[in-house]
Automatic annotation (TrEMBL):
InterPro entries: Beta-lactam-related (IPR001466), Beta-lactam/transpept-like (IPR012338), Diverse_Enzym_Activities (IPR050789). It comes from Lojkania enalia. Keywords: Hydrolase. GO terms for molecular function: hydrolase activity. Belongs to the class-A beta-lactamase family. Residues 18-233 form the Beta-lactamase-related domain. The keyword Magnesium does not apply. It holds the Pfam family Beta-lactamase. Gene3D superfamilies: DD-peptidase/beta-lactamase superfamily (3.40.710.10). This is Beta-lactamase/transpeptidase-like protein.
Length: 256
């Protein structure tokens, strides 16, 4: 993660220019919400002869989980199959009413933002989540999946304290969890303790997105879920309450 002051080309549409910033700490010395996955996408492309990240995902992710064209895209305006189905974004006003809002993510004709730029459907993402909780995953080795559900931040570490300071973000996806039940895995937030208020068991991997989208996966129960809206700003109070109610009802059914 880097400081905004160090940005050389903050308005560039290319990841290697827009995210070419000095680090705010050395790898392993902290935790911050940043652009590491966008850089991971750049590295994947470079390691595979310059192939586009979108083409790489088609062959190595989407087809492997059983999807067929149209496939998720980094430039939705160039994909009529998806652009025609794009839901109108909305922004909540201070009085609770809604007004139209245009999300800028997911429509970059010049580059592929691996951390936040992919447009797809709920069905597309659920196919990935289903594979993640499968006893025979197609995308990753079982031992790699196990690592994703293993806490990566040491208790008392600076990195864990930095994560806990972002409660406004992770509470949206984790529910009303206590600080002692929060960590991070390889791929998302880990809720390591039960969240009794919504009936959520321990060992939940989860995260979400700017449009108040939320996903979770439980290997212990063989269950995954995805909640999707197109609403700004993130962590909307009404949506957060709806997400928690959805999870509570879902876990009541699962635990029967």
């Amino acid at each position: 993660m880097a400081t905004p002051e160090g940005q050389k080309s903050k308005d560039s549409s290319y990841v290697h220019e827009r995210c070419n910033n000095p680090l705010i700490f050395e790898p392993g010395d902290g935790w911050a919400y940043g652009v590491s996955l966008d850089w991971a996408g750049v590295i994947v492309r470079r390691l595979h002869g310059g192939i586009s990240l979108e083409d790489y995902l088609v062959e190595n992710v989407w087809k492997k989980v059983g999807l067929s064209a149209p496939f998720p895209t980094f430039c939705i305006s160039h994909n009529p199959d998806y652009s025609a189905r794009l839901m109108q974004g909305a922004e909540r006003n201070s009085d609770g009413s809604l007004k139209p809002y245009k999300f800028w993510q997911g429509d970059n004709p010049n580059d592929q933002d691996g951390g936040h730029g992919l447009s797809g459907t709920a069905k597309d993402w659920l196919a990935v989540l289903a594979d993640l909780i499968s006893d025979s995953p197609k995308l990753l080795k079982p031992e790699t999946v196990a690592m994703m559900f293993t806490p990566q931040l040491d208790n008392g570490s600076k990195a864990l304290q930095m994560l806990l300071q972002m409660r406004h973000a992770w509470e949206m996806v984790a529910g009303p969890a206590s600080d002692t039940g929060i960590n991070h895995g390889l791929g998302g937030l880990l809720v390591t303790r039960e969240v009794a208020e919504i009936g959520q068991p321990k060992n939940i991997l989860c995260w979400g997105g700017a449009a108040n989208t939320v996903w979770f996966a439980s290997r212990d129960h063989g269950v995954a879920g995805f909640f999707s809206t197109q609403l700004h700003p993130f962590a909307d109070a009404m949506v957060k309450g709806l997400v928690n109610s959805w999870k509570k009802d879902l876990w009541i059914v699962i635990e029967k």
